[in-house]
Amino acid sequence: MSVSLLSRNVARKLLFIQFLAVIASGLLFSLKDPFWGVSAVCGGLAVVLPNVLFMIFAWRHQAHTPAKGRVAWSFALGEVCKVLLTFALLVMALAVLKVVFMPLIATWVLVLVVQVLAPAVINNKG
């Protein structure tokens, strides 16, 4: 299996695990109050949606063979866009939707932890 296909499969698994964490957190918080569940889903989607866009951006540029310096700048630009989009989604959830802060931030942190820990678990096959 090629390295690009392998990295694409790992990225899909990571996105799927993150999405499962968002759904599980939303269901658990909705046991307290349905609006808490909506708040939790908003917090999780504030991480998952920018990750989806970043991975689509990375896959799109993977087919090309850019110059050495362009890879680093492209990655840095993608990360900056991801952080700004995450911030915008969190502000929009708090300001427009008037969500509850605690489940929003708890799920946001949970999905970020999954983003850090899941690749180690996915790559450790033995």
Verbal overview:
The chain contains 4 helices and no strands. The protein is an all-alpha fold. The chain is globular. 22% of the residues are buried. The model is unreliable at 1-5 (pLDDT under 50).
Compile the SSE list and pairings:
Elements: H1 3-30, H2 34-62, H3 68-95, H4 101-123
Secondary-structure element sequence? HHHH
Reported for the largest beta sheet, the result is:
none
Number of strands: 0
Q: What's the rounded overall pLDDT mean?
A: 86
Short description:
Helices cover 86% and strands 0% of the residues.
Brief descriptors of the model:
126 residues; mainly alpha; disordered N terminus
